[in-house]
Amino acid sequence: MHQRPLGRSGLAVSRLALGTMTWGRDTDPDDAADQLKIFLEAGGTLIDTADVYGDGDAEAVIGSLLDHLAPRDEIVIATKAGLTPHRYRARDASRGNLLRSLDASLRRLGTDYVDLWQVHGYDAQTPFEETLAALDQAVASGRVRYAGVSNFSAWQTARAATWQSAYPGRAPIVAAQMEYSLLERGIEREILPAAAALGFGVLAWSPLGRGVLTGKYRNGRPLDSRAASEHMAGFVQAYLEPRSSSIVEAVVTAAAGLGVSPLEVALAWIRDRPGISSVILGARTSGQLQGALRSEQLTLPAEIAFALDDVSAIEVGYPEREGAGYPDTYFG
């Protein structure tokens, strides 16, 4: 599998990443082990997780498997902290909570460092400088190699990246993990231009539009799908609407013409978008992961890529379209 630099940092990551959001809940440990083996055998290196996935069980599953499957220095572990869904505040990016969460993640993962540590969401109740100082402390301690953010708005991401680059010794923001797919192209307005200007890489989560771009929901909701899952139904529902259906049909048509699956088309499209360092595959089963990994062999013909750009294009209004120097390619 091809490797790419994470933004302008020295960290190389596989251009397809293994997501673990369902591990410890909808994906059992045996299937998780199969997924990890398949991913590593395909040349993948980047494993994405978070302290809240499976209430920490996803990290524990990863920790139980890694020692048996690959040397630690050949794996890039990315985790996140700052979401606190079971507490009085849903987000807590205070220094104390972040550093406690990091220590707990390291224990579950069975390692003394993570390669990439990301703040999982913007916390308006904590001073921005305090949150970023926690990243500095974690990197300085050796427990974290690189720092990033996830699900921040463009101004929040740009502020963090600019603040961290203002003085030597601060931990640069090297990554922003954001939702991006043919069904959700909002980051093209400002996040991707900011990434190009400020030097951070983008990790794309939910590249299959929460599973909708596979085409599995064209005729209903399969009983074994995320839309039928107690934990994930609301997550999928947002993309089961008419605009999404027209995009899905375009993907299905393209796939039929190329003799591949719709998910391969959707993944190949996003993998080759400007500014994307890695695409996170959130497979629930090993069979789904194998299908997703086949996209590594596919490069879309230009005319198909352009057609998909067109059918899924978003409106770019003022002031984004007035931004001097924004690469035209970001606007579809």
From TrEMBL:
<dbReference type="InterPro" id="IPR050523">
    <property type="entry name" value="AKR_Detox_Biosynth"/>
</dbReference>
<dbReference type="InterPro" id="IPR020471">
    <property type="entry name" value="AKR"/>
</dbReference>
<dbReference type="InterPro" id="IPR036812">
    <property type="entry name" value="NAD(P)_OxRdtase_dom_sf"/>
</dbReference>
<feature type="domain" description="NADP-dependent oxidoreductase">
    <location>
        <begin position="15"/>
        <end position="309"/>
    </location>
</feature>
<keyword id="KW-0560">Oxidoreductase</keyword>
<dbReference type="Pfam" id="PF00248">
    <property type="entry name" value="Aldo_ket_red"/>
</dbReference>
<protein>
    <submittedName>
        <fullName>Predicted oxidoreductase</fullName>
    </submittedName>
</protein>
<dbReference type="GO" id="GO:0005829">
    <property type="term" value="C:cytosol"/>
</dbReference>
<dbReference type="InterPro" id="IPR023210">
    <property type="entry name" value="NADP_OxRdtase_dom"/>
</dbReference>
<dbReference type="GO" id="GO:0016491">
    <property type="term" value="F:oxidoreductase activity"/>
</dbReference>
